[in-house]
Design goal:
This protein has a single domain, classed as Four Helix Bundle (Hemerythrin (Met), subunit A). The protein has helices at 2-15, 22-52, 64-90, 117-133, 136-175. It is mainly alpha-helical. It starts with a helix and ends in a 15-residue tail after the last helix.
Length: 190
């Protein structure tokens, strides 16, 4: 009977492209996409729009280089955010949402340089908009975002990850900075 069950499992895996995690990966991708729209979409999109109406201002003469820098920060932040979210699906088989966490600790990609690339990317999106639109009120919003996120990470996220992943997370936490990237990628000891 065990052989028959093994054959059924093997056939099911083969029929699903050879990936036994494919159904979980699909759910993770859907949940991650939804969370991307809800969390960063509101914080880095709706929030700045509510604060500024995305109205351009010119705080001082010679503002063009700051606008260009703002556009570059927005582009870099968007790429980093999407890359970080994709790592949760491909590497962690879960989502960034606390209600559907990853199965494994995500330490690849940008996470080899920085523990919190998503938060830094969202902050970059907000600061980029502040520079692009010339809005000091968005810089204040960015500071408030960073203070809230830093508190959330310290009080909730780090203790939860330490409880879930134990020594693996502690080694990662000791080796990879939270807010300013390493110069070289971290490689876990095998």
């Amino acid at each position: 009977m065990a052989d028959g069950h093994e054959e059924t499992v093997k056939e099911a895996i083969a029929a699903d492209g050879g990936d036994p995690d494919r159904p979980r990966r699909r759910r993770a991708a859907l949940g991650t996409a939804l969370f991307l729209v809800v969390a960063p979409g509101i914080v880095a999109g709706v929030g700045p729009w509510l604060v500024s109406g995305w109205q351009f201002e010119t705080p001082f003469e010679g503002w063009l280089p700051f606008r260009l820098l703002g556009g570059a920060l927005i582009a870099a932040g968007a790429v980093a955010l999407l890359h970080s979210f994709a790592r949760f699906v491909s590497e962690g088989l879960g989502t960034p949402a606390p209600v559907a966490p990853t199965r494994t600790l995500v330490v690849g990609g940008l996470y080899r340089y920085l523990r919190n690339p998503m938060y830094v990317a969202v902050g970059g999106l907000i600061v980029g908009q502040a520079l692009l639109f010339g809005r000091l009120d968005l810089l204040v919003y960015a500071v408030a975002f960073f203070l809230l996120v830093a508190a959330f990470v310290r009080v909730y996220e780090e203790p939860v990850l330490a409880a879930q992943f134990g020594a693996e997370y502690e080694a990662y936490r000791r080796a990879v900075p939270g807010w300013w990237p390493r110069r070289t990628p971290w490689r876990p000891q095998s």
